[in-house]
Amino acid sequence: MAKDSPTQVDSKFNNSVFSSSKDAIILGSGSFPKFTGEFWTSRQRQGHSLHEIAYRACFKPQLPKFFIESLTKPGDVVYDPFSGRGTTALEAALLDRHVIANDVNPLSVILSRPRLFPPTLSEIEERLGEVSFEKKVHADIDLSMFFHPKTMTEIVSYKNYFANRFSNHREDDVDRWIRMVATNRLTGHSSGFFSVYTLPPNQAVTPADQIRINAKRKQKPDYRDTKKIILKKSRILLRDVTEEQREQLRRIGKNAVFLTNDARRTDAIPDNAVQLTVTSPPFLDVVQYASDNWLRCWFNGINSESICITTARSVEEWESIMQDVFRELYRITKSGGYVAFEVGEVRNGKIRLDEHVVPLGQNAGFKCEGILINEQQFTKTANIWGVGNNQKGTNTNRIVLFCK
Ligand SMILES: C[S@@+](CC[C@H](N)C(=O)[O-])C[C@H]1O[C@@H](n2cnc3c(N)ncnc32)[C@H](O)[C@@H]1O
To answer: 280 in ligand 1 pocket by Cβ < 6 Å?
Structure first.
Protein backbone atom coordinates (compact mmCIF):
# COMPACT_ATOMS: atom_id res chain seq x y z
CA MET A 1 0.00 0.00 0.00
CA ALA A 2 3.05 2.27 -0.13
CA LYS A 3 2.55 5.22 -2.48
CA ASP A 4 5.15 4.09 -4.99
CA SER A 5 4.18 0.43 -5.16
CA PRO A 6 1.59 -1.01 -7.53
CA THR A 7 -1.62 -1.51 -5.66
CA GLN A 8 -5.02 -2.91 -6.35
CA VAL A 9 -6.90 -0.84 -3.80
CA ASP A 10 -8.96 1.91 -5.39
CA SER A 11 -8.21 5.60 -5.36
CA LYS A 12 -10.88 6.50 -2.82
CA PHE A 13 -9.18 4.16 -0.38
CA ASN A 14 -5.74 5.50 -1.29
CA ASN A 15 -6.81 9.11 -0.89
CA SER A 16 -8.28 8.68 2.56
CA VAL A 17 -5.51 6.42 3.83
CA PHE A 18 -2.51 8.27 2.39
CA SER A 19 -3.62 11.64 3.67
CA SER A 20 -3.38 10.20 7.19
CA SER A 21 -0.29 10.15 9.32
CA LYS A 22 1.98 7.25 8.43
CA ASP A 23 4.84 5.47 10.07
CA ALA A 24 6.27 2.01 9.74
CA ILE A 25 6.49 -0.97 12.00
CA ILE A 26 9.28 -3.49 11.71
CA LEU A 27 8.19 -7.05 12.28
CA GLY A 28 10.56 -9.96 11.69
CA SER A 29 12.27 -9.35 8.37
CA GLY A 30 9.62 -6.99 6.99
CA SER A 31 8.49 -3.41 7.45
CA PHE A 32 4.82 -2.46 7.11
CA PRO A 33 3.11 0.88 6.76
CA LYS A 34 0.95 1.86 9.67
CA PHE A 35 -1.70 4.50 8.97
CA THR A 36 -3.38 6.45 11.74
CA GLY A 37 -6.35 8.72 11.18
CA GLU A 38 -10.09 9.11 11.45
CA PHE A 39 -11.04 7.10 8.34
CA TRP A 40 -14.63 6.81 9.49
CA THR A 41 -16.63 8.32 12.31
CA SER A 42 -18.96 6.12 14.27
CA ARG A 43 -21.60 8.34 15.75
CA GLN A 44 -24.60 7.00 17.58
CA ARG A 45 -27.51 6.28 15.27
CA GLN A 46 -25.57 7.20 12.14
CA GLY A 47 -25.57 3.71 10.74
CA HIS A 48 -28.72 2.23 9.23
CA SER A 49 -31.44 1.70 11.87
CA LEU A 50 -31.54 -2.04 11.11
CA HIS A 51 -28.15 -2.39 12.82
CA GLU A 52 -29.54 -1.41 16.23
CA ILE A 53 -29.34 -4.84 17.86
CA ALA A 54 -27.01 -4.98 20.86
CA TYR A 55 -24.25 -7.60 20.86
CA ARG A 56 -21.07 -7.91 22.93
CA ALA A 57 -17.99 -6.47 21.19
CA CYS A 58 -19.82 -5.72 17.95
CA PHE A 59 -18.21 -3.19 15.67
CA LYS A 60 -19.93 -0.10 14.35
CA PRO A 61 -21.36 -0.44 10.82
CA GLN A 62 -19.08 2.34 9.55
CA LEU A 63 -16.11 -0.03 9.85
CA PRO A 64 -17.29 -2.71 7.38
CA LYS A 65 -18.85 0.03 5.24
CA PHE A 66 -15.46 1.70 4.76
CA PHE A 67 -13.82 -1.50 3.50
CA ILE A 68 -16.80 -2.78 1.50
CA GLU A 69 -17.18 0.51 -0.38
CA SER A 70 -13.44 0.78 -0.99
CA LEU A 71 -12.50 -2.78 -1.89
CA THR A 72 -15.55 -4.38 -3.54
CA LYS A 73 -18.20 -3.63 -6.13
CA PRO A 74 -21.89 -4.60 -6.22
CA GLY A 75 -22.28 -8.34 -6.75
CA ASP A 76 -18.99 -9.27 -5.04
CA VAL A 77 -19.00 -11.72 -2.13
CA VAL A 78 -18.34 -10.29 1.35
CA TYR A 79 -17.69 -12.64 4.28
CA ASP A 80 -17.41 -12.54 8.06
CA PRO A 81 -16.18 -15.72 9.82
CA PHE A 82 -16.94 -14.30 13.33
CA SER A 83 -20.22 -12.68 12.43
CA GLY A 84 -21.80 -11.91 15.84
CA ARG A 85 -24.92 -9.78 15.32
CA GLY A 86 -24.11 -9.70 11.58
CA THR A 87 -22.83 -6.14 11.17
CA THR A 88 -20.70 -7.01 8.11
CA ALA A 89 -23.46 -9.16 6.58
CA LEU A 90 -26.15 -6.50 6.92
CA GLU A 91 -23.91 -3.67 5.71
CA ALA A 92 -22.84 -5.78 2.70
CA ALA A 93 -26.49 -6.51 1.85
CA LEU A 94 -27.39 -2.81 2.16
CA LEU A 95 -24.56 -2.10 -0.31
CA ASP A 96 -25.83 -4.79 -2.72
CA ARG A 97 -23.02 -7.29 -2.16
CA HIS A 98 -23.48 -11.05 -1.72
CA VAL A 99 -23.25 -12.26 1.84
CA ILE A 100 -21.61 -15.18 3.62
CA ALA A 101 -21.66 -15.11 7.42
CA ASN A 102 -20.41 -17.61 9.96
CA ASP A 103 -20.42 -17.77 13.74
CA VAL A 104 -20.02 -20.82 15.93
CA ASN A 105 -22.93 -19.61 18.08
CA PRO A 106 -26.31 -20.30 16.37
CA LEU A 107 -27.64 -17.21 18.14
CA SER A 108 -25.79 -15.21 15.51
CA VAL A 109 -28.09 -16.44 12.69
CA ILE A 110 -31.16 -15.80 14.85
CA LEU A 111 -30.05 -12.18 15.31
CA SER A 112 -28.77 -11.56 11.76
CA ARG A 113 -30.85 -13.31 9.14
CA PRO A 114 -34.27 -11.76 9.95
CA ARG A 115 -32.91 -8.30 9.19
CA LEU A 116 -32.39 -9.32 5.56
CA PHE A 117 -36.15 -10.00 5.45
CA PRO A 118 -37.69 -7.05 7.29
CA PRO A 119 -41.50 -7.36 7.50
CA THR A 120 -43.78 -4.33 7.69
CA LEU A 121 -44.99 -3.02 11.03
CA SER A 122 -48.54 -4.06 10.27
CA GLU A 123 -47.42 -7.64 9.50
CA ILE A 124 -45.65 -7.73 12.86
CA GLU A 125 -48.66 -6.27 14.69
CA GLU A 126 -51.02 -8.75 13.06
CA ARG A 127 -48.79 -11.73 13.90
CA LEU A 128 -48.34 -10.62 17.50
CA GLY A 129 -52.14 -10.61 17.72
CA GLU A 130 -52.10 -14.31 16.81
CA VAL A 131 -49.77 -15.29 19.67
CA SER A 132 -51.93 -16.26 22.62
CA PHE A 133 -50.53 -16.17 26.12
CA GLU A 134 -51.20 -19.37 28.01
CA LYS A 135 -51.88 -18.82 31.72
CA LYS A 136 -50.48 -22.03 33.14
CA VAL A 137 -47.05 -22.24 31.54
CA HIS A 138 -43.84 -22.34 33.52
CA ALA A 139 -40.20 -21.95 32.61
CA ASP A 140 -37.96 -24.97 33.12
CA ILE A 141 -35.60 -22.79 35.20
CA ASP A 142 -36.24 -20.16 37.87
CA LEU A 143 -36.07 -16.72 36.26
CA SER A 144 -38.24 -14.94 38.84
CA MET A 145 -35.34 -12.62 39.75
CA PHE A 146 -35.52 -11.17 36.19
CA PHE A 147 -39.20 -11.27 35.25
CA HIS A 148 -42.63 -10.59 36.77
CA PRO A 149 -44.73 -13.83 36.77
CA LYS A 150 -47.07 -12.45 34.09
CA THR A 151 -44.16 -11.36 31.88
CA MET A 152 -42.65 -14.80 32.42
CA THR A 153 -45.77 -16.57 31.10
CA GLU A 154 -45.64 -14.33 28.01
CA ILE A 155 -41.96 -15.22 27.43
CA VAL A 156 -42.65 -18.95 27.78
CA SER A 157 -45.67 -18.60 25.46
CA TYR A 158 -43.43 -17.07 22.75
CA LYS A 159 -40.93 -19.87 23.28
CA ASN A 160 -43.68 -22.49 22.83
CA TYR A 161 -45.18 -20.62 19.88
CA PHE A 162 -41.82 -20.52 18.02
CA ALA A 163 -41.17 -24.20 18.77
CA ASN A 164 -44.65 -25.16 17.42
CA ARG A 165 -44.34 -23.05 14.32
CA PHE A 166 -40.92 -24.56 13.63
CA SER A 167 -41.95 -28.18 14.15
CA ASN A 168 -45.05 -27.69 11.98
CA HIS A 169 -42.86 -26.15 9.22
CA ARG A 170 -44.88 -22.95 9.49
CA GLU A 171 -42.18 -20.61 10.80
CA ASP A 172 -41.81 -17.65 8.41
CA ASP A 173 -39.97 -14.33 8.14
CA VAL A 174 -42.40 -12.54 10.46
CA ASP A 175 -41.97 -15.21 13.17
CA ARG A 176 -38.20 -15.03 12.81
CA TRP A 177 -38.32 -11.22 13.09
CA ILE A 178 -40.41 -11.37 16.28
CA ARG A 179 -38.08 -14.01 17.73
CA MET A 180 -35.06 -11.77 17.00
CA VAL A 181 -36.63 -8.69 18.59
CA ALA A 182 -37.88 -10.65 21.63
CA THR A 183 -34.38 -12.14 22.05
CA ASN A 184 -32.97 -8.64 21.95
CA ARG A 185 -35.49 -7.30 24.48
CA LEU A 186 -35.15 -10.04 27.10
CA THR A 187 -32.99 -8.23 29.63
CA GLY A 188 -31.70 -4.69 29.89
CA HIS A 189 -31.42 -1.52 31.88
CA SER A 190 -34.64 0.33 31.02
CA SER A 191 -38.39 -0.15 30.75
CA GLY A 192 -37.86 -0.99 27.07
CA PHE A 193 -36.90 -4.54 28.13
CA PHE A 194 -38.88 -7.47 29.53
CA SER A 195 -36.75 -7.69 32.71
CA VAL A 196 -36.33 -5.65 35.85
CA TYR A 197 -33.26 -3.32 35.76
CA THR A 198 -30.12 -5.32 35.02
CA LEU A 199 -26.98 -5.02 32.90
CA PRO A 200 -27.33 -3.82 29.28
CA PRO A 201 -28.94 -6.33 26.88
CA ASN A 202 -25.76 -7.81 25.48
CA GLN A 203 -24.60 -9.08 28.88
CA ALA A 204 -26.89 -11.31 30.92
CA VAL A 205 -25.82 -11.74 34.54
CA THR A 206 -26.31 -15.01 36.45
CA PRO A 207 -29.50 -15.51 38.53
CA ALA A 208 -27.40 -15.22 41.71
CA ASP A 209 -25.95 -11.87 40.57
CA GLN A 210 -29.42 -10.60 39.64
CA ILE A 211 -30.68 -11.46 43.15
CA ARG A 212 -27.82 -9.33 44.50
CA ILE A 213 -28.65 -6.45 42.10
CA ASN A 214 -32.32 -6.59 43.17
CA ALA A 215 -31.38 -6.51 46.86
CA LYS A 216 -28.97 -3.62 46.38
CA ARG A 217 -31.46 -1.57 44.37
CA LYS A 218 -34.41 -2.67 46.54
CA GLN A 219 -36.28 -3.64 43.36
CA LYS A 220 -38.45 -6.46 42.17
CA PRO A 221 -39.62 -7.20 38.64
CA ASP A 222 -42.78 -5.39 37.55
CA TYR A 223 -45.01 -6.43 34.65
CA ARG A 224 -43.81 -5.52 31.14
CA ASP A 225 -46.13 -5.54 28.15
CA THR A 226 -44.02 -7.67 25.82
CA LYS A 227 -46.11 -7.11 22.67
CA LYS A 228 -45.89 -3.35 23.09
CA ILE A 229 -42.12 -3.56 23.63
CA ILE A 230 -41.61 -5.77 20.55
CA LEU A 231 -43.62 -3.37 18.39
CA LYS A 232 -41.77 -0.33 19.71
CA LYS A 233 -38.36 -1.85 19.01
CA SER A 234 -39.53 -3.03 15.57
CA ARG A 235 -40.57 0.53 14.76
CA ILE A 236 -37.05 1.74 15.70
CA LEU A 237 -35.33 -0.96 13.64
CA LEU A 238 -37.51 -0.33 10.59
CA ARG A 239 -37.19 3.46 10.81
CA ASP A 240 -34.79 3.82 7.85
CA VAL A 241 -36.01 0.93 5.67
CA THR A 242 -37.30 2.03 2.26
CA GLU A 243 -39.35 -0.19 -0.07
CA GLU A 244 -36.39 -0.32 -2.44
CA GLN A 245 -34.10 -1.51 0.36
CA ARG A 246 -36.64 -4.08 1.50
CA GLU A 247 -36.58 -5.56 -2.00
CA GLN A 248 -32.79 -5.45 -2.27
CA LEU A 249 -32.29 -7.04 1.16
CA ARG A 250 -34.72 -9.83 0.26
CA ARG A 251 -32.94 -10.48 -3.03
CA ILE A 252 -29.55 -10.65 -1.30
CA GLY A 253 -31.06 -12.56 1.65
CA LYS A 254 -32.40 -15.35 -0.58
CA ASN A 255 -28.86 -16.25 -1.68
CA ALA A 256 -27.11 -15.34 1.59
CA VAL A 257 -25.25 -18.16 3.33
CA PHE A 258 -25.30 -18.38 7.14
CA LEU A 259 -23.02 -20.99 8.69
CA THR A 260 -22.54 -22.07 12.31
CA ASN A 261 -19.08 -23.61 12.03
CA ASP A 262 -15.81 -23.11 13.76
CA ALA A 263 -14.14 -20.42 11.62
CA ARG A 264 -11.25 -22.84 11.00
CA ARG A 265 -13.42 -25.30 9.05
CA THR A 266 -15.94 -23.78 6.66
CA ASP A 267 -16.11 -26.50 4.02
CA ALA A 268 -19.39 -25.15 2.61
CA ILE A 269 -17.53 -22.11 1.22
CA PRO A 270 -15.91 -22.91 -2.14
CA ASP A 271 -12.27 -22.10 -2.91
CA ASN A 272 -11.55 -18.58 -4.29
CA ALA A 273 -15.12 -17.39 -3.67
CA VAL A 274 -14.72 -14.31 -1.47
CA GLN A 275 -13.64 -10.82 -2.57
CA LEU A 276 -13.48 -9.31 0.92
CA THR A 277 -13.56 -10.56 4.50
CA VAL A 278 -14.24 -7.98 7.20
CA THR A 279 -14.09 -9.47 10.65
CA SER A 280 -13.30 -9.13 14.29
CA PRO A 281 -12.33 -12.33 16.16
CA PRO A 282 -12.67 -13.03 19.87
CA PHE A 283 -9.77 -11.20 21.56
CA LEU A 284 -8.08 -13.75 23.85
CA ASP A 285 -10.45 -14.26 26.80
CA VAL A 286 -11.59 -10.64 27.08
CA VAL A 287 -15.30 -11.26 26.41
CA GLN A 288 -17.22 -14.26 27.72
CA TYR A 289 -19.62 -14.78 24.80
CA ALA A 290 -21.10 -17.98 26.28
CA SER A 291 -22.04 -16.55 29.68
CA ASP A 292 -23.05 -13.15 28.27
CA ASN A 293 -25.55 -14.88 25.98
CA TRP A 294 -26.87 -17.66 28.28
CA LEU A 295 -30.38 -16.23 28.65
CA ARG A 296 -30.72 -15.46 24.94
CA CYS A 297 -29.61 -19.03 24.23
CA TRP A 298 -32.13 -20.44 26.74
CA PHE A 299 -34.95 -18.49 25.07
CA ASN A 300 -34.00 -19.97 21.72
CA GLY A 301 -33.52 -23.54 22.95
CA ILE A 302 -29.74 -23.43 22.41
CA ASN A 303 -27.53 -25.23 24.91
CA SER A 304 -24.89 -22.51 25.35
CA GLU A 305 -22.52 -24.91 27.12
CA SER A 306 -22.29 -27.13 24.06
CA ILE A 307 -20.97 -24.35 21.79
CA CYS A 308 -17.18 -24.29 21.36
CA ILE A 309 -16.54 -20.58 21.52
CA THR A 310 -12.86 -19.73 21.22
CA THR A 311 -11.28 -18.26 24.33
CA ALA A 312 -7.51 -18.21 24.59
CA ARG A 313 -5.68 -17.50 27.82
CA SER A 314 -2.35 -16.72 26.17
CA VAL A 315 -1.30 -14.93 22.99
CA GLU A 316 0.43 -18.15 21.82
CA GLU A 317 -2.79 -20.13 22.14
CA TRP A 318 -4.72 -17.38 20.31
CA GLU A 319 -2.10 -17.24 17.53
CA SER A 320 -2.28 -20.97 16.96
CA ILE A 321 -6.09 -20.86 16.53
CA MET A 322 -6.00 -17.74 14.32
CA GLN A 323 -3.25 -19.29 12.16
CA ASP A 324 -5.75 -21.98 11.16
CA VAL A 325 -8.40 -19.32 10.55
CA PHE A 326 -6.03 -17.51 8.17
CA ARG A 327 -5.27 -20.73 6.26
CA GLU A 328 -9.01 -21.19 5.74
CA LEU A 329 -9.41 -17.53 4.72
CA TYR A 330 -6.64 -17.92 2.17
CA ARG A 331 -8.40 -20.93 0.64
CA ILE A 332 -11.72 -19.13 0.19
CA THR A 333 -10.34 -15.71 -0.88
CA LYS A 334 -10.19 -14.83 -4.58
CA SER A 335 -6.88 -13.87 -6.08
CA GLY A 336 -6.73 -10.07 -5.63
CA GLY A 337 -9.24 -10.25 -2.77
CA TYR A 338 -8.78 -8.78 0.71
CA VAL A 339 -9.03 -9.56 4.40
CA ALA A 340 -9.59 -6.71 6.88
CA PHE A 341 -8.94 -8.21 10.33
CA GLU A 342 -9.93 -5.98 13.23
CA VAL A 343 -8.48 -6.38 16.69
CA GLY A 344 -9.03 -4.09 19.62
CA GLU A 345 -6.65 -2.94 22.29
CA VAL A 346 -6.22 -5.84 24.68
CA ARG A 347 -5.00 -5.69 28.30
CA ASN A 348 -5.12 -1.86 28.25
CA GLY A 349 -3.07 -1.62 25.08
CA LYS A 350 -0.21 -3.71 26.50
CA ILE A 351 -0.78 -6.45 23.93
CA ARG A 352 -0.80 -5.25 20.31
CA LEU A 353 -2.72 -8.08 18.69
CA ASP A 354 -2.48 -6.36 15.30
CA GLU A 355 1.26 -6.89 15.28
CA HIS A 356 0.74 -10.56 16.13
CA VAL A 357 -1.73 -10.88 13.27
CA VAL A 358 0.69 -9.76 10.51
CA PRO A 359 2.84 -12.95 10.47
CA LEU A 360 -0.25 -15.16 10.76
CA GLY A 361 -1.65 -13.78 7.50
CA GLN A 362 1.74 -13.94 5.80
CA ASN A 363 2.33 -17.56 6.82
CA ALA A 364 -0.99 -18.40 5.21
CA GLY A 365 0.17 -16.79 1.92
CA PHE A 366 -1.34 -13.29 2.12
CA LYS A 367 0.54 -10.06 1.44
CA CYS A 368 0.21 -7.58 4.31
CA GLU A 369 -0.87 -4.20 2.94
CA GLY A 370 -0.49 -2.43 6.27
CA ILE A 371 -2.15 -1.66 9.57
CA LEU A 372 -4.90 0.94 9.76
CA ILE A 373 -5.56 2.56 13.10
CA ASN A 374 -8.84 4.40 13.14
CA GLU A 375 -8.74 6.85 16.00
CA GLN A 376 -11.90 8.71 16.79
CA GLN A 377 -11.85 11.37 19.47
CA PHE A 378 -14.58 10.97 22.07
CA THR A 379 -17.44 13.35 21.95
CA LYS A 380 -19.23 14.00 25.22
CA THR A 381 -22.19 11.98 24.00
CA ALA A 382 -20.02 9.11 22.82
CA ASN A 383 -18.55 8.96 26.31
CA ILE A 384 -21.93 8.85 27.95
CA TRP A 385 -22.97 6.03 25.64
CA GLY A 386 -19.83 4.06 26.46
CA VAL A 387 -18.51 4.09 22.91
CA GLY A 388 -14.93 4.15 24.18
CA ASN A 389 -12.85 1.02 24.32
CA ASN A 390 -9.68 2.41 25.81
CA GLN A 391 -8.70 4.95 28.42
CA LYS A 392 -7.19 7.70 26.28
CA GLY A 393 -10.32 9.56 25.26
CA THR A 394 -10.36 7.89 21.87
CA ASN A 395 -12.23 5.00 20.33
CA THR A 396 -9.58 2.97 18.54
CA ASN A 397 -9.94 0.22 15.97
CA ARG A 398 -6.82 -1.53 14.71
CA ILE A 399 -7.25 -3.30 11.39
CA VAL A 400 -4.65 -5.38 9.57
CA LEU A 401 -5.28 -5.44 5.83
CA PHE A 402 -4.13 -8.36 3.69
CA CYS A 403 -4.36 -9.07 -0.04
CA LYS A 404 -4.22 -12.44 -1.79
C1 LIG B 1 -15.88 -9.84 18.42
S2 LIG B 1 -17.31 -10.85 18.15
C3 LIG B 1 -17.77 -10.39 16.53
C4 LIG B 1 -18.73 -9.25 16.53
C5 LIG B 1 -19.14 -8.83 15.13
N6 LIG B 1 -18.07 -8.15 14.43
C7 LIG B 1 -20.35 -7.91 15.22
O8 LIG B 1 -20.28 -6.76 14.77
O9 LIG B 1 -21.35 -8.33 15.83
C10 LIG B 1 -16.62 -12.45 17.95
C11 LIG B 1 -17.61 -13.56 17.59
O12 LIG B 1 -16.86 -14.74 17.33
C13 LIG B 1 -17.67 -15.86 17.67
N14 LIG B 1 -16.74 -17.00 17.79
C15 LIG B 1 -15.95 -17.32 18.83
N16 LIG B 1 -15.18 -18.37 18.53
C17 LIG B 1 -15.48 -18.74 17.26
C18 LIG B 1 -14.99 -19.73 16.37
N19 LIG B 1 -14.03 -20.57 16.75
N20 LIG B 1 -15.52 -19.81 15.14
C21 LIG B 1 -16.50 -18.96 14.74
N22 LIG B 1 -17.02 -18.00 15.54
C23 LIG B 1 -16.50 -17.87 16.79
C24 LIG B 1 -18.39 -15.44 18.93
O25 LIG B 1 -19.57 -16.19 19.10
C26 LIG B 1 -18.64 -13.95 18.65
O27 LIG B 1 -19.92 -13.77 18.13
So the answer is: yes
